[in-house]
Structures are given as structure tokens and as C-alpha cells.
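Researcher: Here's the sequence for the chain we discussed earlier.
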Amino acid sequence: MKKIKIGIVWANPYNKNMGVAALAYSALSIIHDVLKTRGIEEFEVSFIGSSKNTSDSLVIGTDKIEFDNVFGFDFYNFKAIVKFLLFPRKYKLRKLIGFDYLFDIAEGDSFTDIYGDKRFNKIKNSKVFFNLLGTKQFLLPQTIGPFKDKNHEKKAFLIMNKMEAVVSRDNKSFLYTKNHLSATIISESIDVAFYLPFDRKHFDKTKINVGINVSGLLWNGGYTRNNQFNLKTNFKKLIFNTLRFFYEKENVQIYIVSHVVPGKSQEVEDDYYAAEELQKTFPNVILAPRFSNPIEAKSFISGLDFFTGARMHACIAAFSSSVAVCPMAYSRKFNGLFVDTLKYKWLGDCVNSEEVTVLNNIINAFENRVELVDAIDTSLNEIVYPRIKLLKLHISNIIN
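Model: Thanks. This is the structure I predict for it:
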């Protein structure tokens, strides 16, 4: 039987953004489980867009899954051609042209131009490159768009129309793609990180354990350091006021939970750097460790009694482990997932609301956390688990 060769595109299991790493772990786990269910034993999986280029393995749940890594870069420009010609082994040209199926997750939310032209072109051009090779491509559940530039939007949908399937992880993305793509290739599912396993941590229950995630990216005003995401909320003021509210409660222990931890050389993105700054003002808060992988991060979050923050996958880690959570939304991906898809009303909208409104939403959520857990469990049973089941069936049907 021919060995099936599968690539997972724009997923990096070594990424220090635990959300991006969670997508890699979860996508690998789902595809592995589909192959196992099908009884397919001859297969090879590679991460394309990894920060390494060596073979490796991960233990996810009870399975040890082996895989290969391929560096990620803009595959469809002059520099790429030069790299392939000069260093074909390093950039694994032979492997890239030999895939049977590609499952592209675009780092969850990077098939857009809100992060700049360079990232948009990198994400788009891999699809152009593999389309020229005739490789079957499947877009795993992700946020699609928005595109500020109409030319970018046109290019994105031209290439998406050539995919085997385009799956959105939220209702807003689904409705958006519905206006541009054939109904035969689009569907709506759920973020694959809901599939990520965890080992629930146990905290001292004499106090209410509250986790607060501080996005280093928002703390610093985005990559431009000038309110790049056009928030109506003053994010620093919101964080200070949120910490002050919980800090004054004697029965609460605060944990500042960093979910993007690349190190101070990239402090614009580093949640932990912002957390250290805050601890100077609030010395009794406990800083969660710099997690080494997304399972470790989710396991920590799963033991909390309440969670709030602006890193979406930190909020997904809470939600998918039945922890009361109030996300601090900074883009439509939050509203699309939590409000529209999960039917979950407990959210603070930092784009359209002043910080006092967002803070009141967080306080209200905290005071009603038992109700939040009930709503989460209903959503998991009625929405999340059935969608994951259908996603696995969809993937199985693609692999023929």
C-alpha cells in the first residue's frame, strides 16, 4: 500500500505563542486519529511552516506521533526560487513536491491583511505554490479575513476557489466566504484547539483562583505601538482596573497567565514581559510560568475558577476545560467564535466599548461564574463536540 504523505501548513508546534502551537498539536492529533480510525498505517505527516527542519515526535494524550518539519517562508517569490536551487535539501524541495494532501491552518487567523502585507502574501503564496503543483489542499477551520485591501480580498478568494474544501471556525467567517465561494466547498466547524487534551491542575481551593491574561501585543499597542487594532478600550487602563478589582478581594488569588512567551527580544508580543511589569504594582499576584507547550498551558488554565484575557486561545483553553471565562475581544474572531458560533454572551468588546463597559462585563461574569460554567457545558455538548465529529468525517472523506 502506498504511503500517504500529508502536510499541515502554517502550523508550528514549537511556536512560543501557545495558541499557534495548540493549533499544530490539535491538527496533528485530529488527522492522526482519523488515519487510525480508517486503519491507515502507512502515512507520513510533516509540518510546513515550522521553525525546525528535523524529524520529531509529540506525545498527545496517549499517542506518540512522529512527524517531519519543513521551514516556512514565502514559497512563491524570487528568494524562494533561489533558496530551492541553492539549498534543495535544507528546504526539502523534494518533500514539498511529493505531498498527497495539504491541510492548511494559516496560524488560525493569518489569512487576512490586518497583520500587514508581508504575512498576507506568505500565507497566500503557499497556496499558489501548491496549487501549481496540483496538490489537494484543504483549509482547516480558521478565521478568514477581514481584508482591508480589496485587491488582497480578490486574490485570496481566487485561490480559495481552487481548494478541495474551505472550513471556517466561526459563523462570521462562514457568512463572509459564502458570498464569494461555491457552496460545494465551504462549511463551518470549530477551532481545532478544542480538541487539545489537558491534565487538570489543582489549586488551593480556600480561595477563588482567578487567571488574567495580559496580551503583550495589545499592552504595547500592536506591532505599530500605536493602537494598531483601533481599540476603543484603553487596554492598559482596563488591565490595571481589572487587577485592582480582584486584588482588593481577600478571598481571591490572582494568577497572571502568559500565553505568548517568546522572550524579551520580542517584547512587543511577550505577555510575560507585561506580566512582570504589572507585578511591580501588584506584588501579591502570582505569575504563571513560561509554558513550554500548549498542553501545559491548558492544564494550568483548566484548574482556575475564573479566567479573562485577550489571547483567544487562552480563552479557548478555559472554555474547552469548563472554566468560567470572559474574553477581552480585540477583533471579530472573538465575536464570531464565542457569540455567534458558541452562543456565549459573556464577552467584553474592546473594539467597540470603553474600558469601563468591558470591566463591568468581566465583573458581571465573575459574579455569575456558576451560570457561565453551565452555559459552557451546554455549548460543548451541543455545538463543539458534534462539530469536531463532523470535521473528522470531512477530513476522512478528503483522504481517499
